[in-house]
Amino acid sequence: QVQLVESGGGLVQAGGSLRLSCAASGRTFSSYAMGWFRQAPGKEREGVSSISSSDGSTYYTDSVKGRFTISRDNAKNTVYLQMNSLKPEDTAVYSCRADWIGGRYWGQGTQVTVSS
User: CA–CA separation, 53 vs 46, rounded Å?
Assistant: First the structure.
């Protein structure tokens, strides 16, 4: 069983920054592919960014490219999402997900609200 706990959400003005963290339990964090997802009210959940377990390759959805940066610290069992130049349309509940051979796990989510 893998437990994921997100933190770092909050209220920020447009143009501001937030850094989300997702701390994972388990001894094999380095083998987890990690991803950030978001769901805005009335919308489907979408994948925002991901980072592989092998070579650290990253993915970003088009709407956040150049503004968000995903990173991981395997020594701390944590994945981060640095969000800069935030826009009101980034408002959503952000959740992290871990994928590994043992299964897929989700965190509970953290609210990000960007005011205009």
Answer: 21
Ramachandran angles phi, psi of 33, nearest 5°: -80, 130
Q: In sequence order, what are the residues at sequence separation of 6 or more whose Cβ sits closer than 8 angstroms to the Cβ of residue 109? A: 6, 39, 93, 94, 95
What is residue 27's predicted lDDT score, i.e. its pLDDT? 78
User: Cα–Cα distance between 96 and 94 in angstroms, integer?
Assistant: 7
Which tokens belong to 21?
């963290």
Taking alpha carbons only, the member of 42, 13, 9 closest to residue 111 is 9
pLDDT digits (tens, 9 = 90+) for 49-94: 999 998 889 999 999 999 999 999 999 999 999 999 999 999 999 9
Q: Quote the CA–CA distance of 85 and 24 in Å, as a whole number.
A: 27
In this structure, how many other beta carbons lie within 10 angstroms of the beta carbon of residue 58? 14
CA distance 22 to 62: 22
Q: What is the pLDDT of residue 55?
A: 87
